[in-house]
């Protein structure tokens, strides 16, 4: 983490120094439309809006930190549940720092190349090469600093890949090999190492395949959402619904995976239309790079926005199915929620029709209200409430809206003094006065305190008249 933050900070500090302040970077980003945080368009076809980020990110991060084997393996290595929670809180702070640093690096990137976009000007071949291009552009004169950024990028990648490969090998040995084969511990150890090499090769192959799917971030979120969404639905089905059984869980998991893969593969074949992506403009009128003499393009005199001629625009001339403009154009942030919801709905439906209603579970296997943080807060407040709500007569009588109880006490004291030697008349005045006062205060907000006040007055008068 320290190496990653060091690489980000090197880019941020140098960019701020070259621009002359942080405010310049924010102003340039705001003028270019890069700080549009309040786009409340509810259309699920829009790639990035307030709702796609909030809803999609909630499901994605829940699947990554709640059911991911690599994360759960870390939780299980902690001594106690408290240590696991503390590790999550520390990770939360670190994650915020890295995310904020990466976002600000993106703002620095735009502010530096707002008039000459290297990708549109063909200085780089892919958008993922923009940040390394910026590093070499502003930090190339400082020996070792570009290498620090490369080390930061590789450290973040290798730490994730190594833990994932180790988790895959451990799960395969523990769940698929050990229960069905009688092997020694040494043999299982060699099998785990061999599986680690195998899964490493698979990861390299998948990385090569992912390079053909577009931007790195979108590809990662699409794959995580496609696989993690149905798994999150399976765990949620077992935690939230007591009637869920194995048949429903299997049916829901398969259905969620099929739907998620259907959308993901369809989105790669039929790319979303530009009106759904709504790319922001990129300019090249500030570029001073000229091409070869045989090329008619001269960036010095060329000024335009990014053309973004995608395969989707080319597909307009070709027959696009109806699903391509709606179903396949769903924002990639919704792949995970879609898989989760399909798994829960199908799984619960199948469970209800396959004997799930008569299923008896052991206590503690499903989520109850006692497990909710809000319910625990409610219980704490409820326990404190009786003590806090006990009437304090001295405090009550000082309030303006208790003028009648105060008058009641004064008048009743006067009656007690006046007729203290006539007990029958004293009791008669007491009953009549109490009835009149109770009727007048029956609609008062503090009427529950009236009987206690009356009893105190009555007992004091009895003692006084005895």
Written account of the structure:
With 466 residues, this protein is an all-alpha fold. It has a domain at 393-465. The chain has 19 helices and no strands. The chain has helices at 2-19, 22-31, 50-66, 69-76, 81-112, 130-139, 145-177, 185-210, 216-240, 246-269, 274-277, 311-314, 322-325, 335-352, 373-388, 393-397, 403-418, 423-440, 450-465. Helix 1 runs parallel beside helix 5, helix 3 (50-66) packs across helix 14 and helix 9 packs parallel to helix 14. The radius of gyration is 35 Å and the shape is globular. The chain starts with a helix and ends with a helix.
**What's the total helix number?**
19
Quick one: biggest sheet? none
Helix content: 55-70%
Q: What value does the average pLDDT take?
A: 76
- What Rg, in angstroms, do the CA atoms define? 35 Å
Order of helices and strands: HHHHHHHHHHHHHHHHHHH
Beta-strand percentage? under 5%
Number of strands: 0
Uncertain residue segments = 290-315, 388-407, 437-466
Structural class: mainly alpha
The backbone outline, from C-alpha atoms, is globular
Summarize this structure as a short list of keywords or feature phrases:
disordered C terminus, mainly alpha, 65% helix, 466 residues, single chain
Task: Summarize the model shown.
With 466 residues, the protein is mainly alpha-helical. It has 19 helices and no strands.
Explain the layout of strands and helices.
Elements lengths: L1 H18 L2 H10 L18 H17 L2 H8 L4 H32 L17 H10 L5 H33 L7 H26 L5 H25 L5 H24 L4 H4 L33 H4 L7 H4 L9 H18 L20 H16 L4 H5 L5 H16 L4 H18 L9 H16 L1
Helix pairs in contact: 1-5, 1-6, 1-7, 2-5, 3-9, 3-14, 6-7, 7-8, 9-10, 9-14, 10-14, 17-18, 17-19, 18-19
